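Saturday, quiet lab. Running sequence design on the structure tokens for the scaffold JK sent over.
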């Protein structure tokens, strides 16, 4: 792997890139503009929010006290809203409805709706795929 490839992948993680529908299971026409899950702001926010969890919302494991699964989900959702999801295209309430415009408020509504966990998961999967798609595109461009 070349350093140029590594820089291209990291650029997508830090600055964001569009991920197409076939990756996240929301349909071919839906695209998400996401930063990589491991961007510096995500990691910092996740650490800060985890440290702020009171001990009564932690569970004892073989490794000591850890954030409960419910708190972990809440923290990941907040990190996705604030540091990962930047925009979307062609997301609709119904198949024949108008596209929903992106806003952070709408993203918060959708990513915290317990009935829309598949959407939250799609954003999470996209955030993990953003660097890989960049690597694939870079390799395709390099061949041309």
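Result came back. Writing it out in full:
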């Amino acid at each position: 792997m070349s350093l140029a490839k590594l820089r291209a992948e990291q650029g997508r993680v830090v600055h964001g890139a569009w991920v197409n529908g076939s990756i996240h299971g929301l349909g071919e026409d839906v695209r998400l503009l996401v930063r990589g899950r491991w961007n510096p702001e995500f990691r910092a926010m996740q650490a800060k929010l985890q440290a702020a969890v009171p001990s009564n919302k932690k569970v004892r494991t073989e490794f000591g006290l850890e954030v409960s699964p419910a708190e972990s989900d809440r923290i990941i959702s907040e990190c996705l809203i604030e540091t990962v999801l930047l925009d979307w295209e062609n997301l609709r309430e119904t198949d024949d409805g108008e596209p929903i415009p992106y806003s952070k408020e709408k993203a918060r509504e959708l990513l915290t709706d317990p009935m829309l966990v598949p959407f939250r998961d799609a954003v999470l999967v996209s955030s993990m795929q953003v660097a890989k798609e960049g690597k694939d595109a870079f390799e395709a461009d390099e061949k041309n």
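Notes for JK: Residues 117-143 form the longest helix (27 residues). DSSP finds six helices and five strands in the chain. Ask whether to fix the surface positions before the next round.
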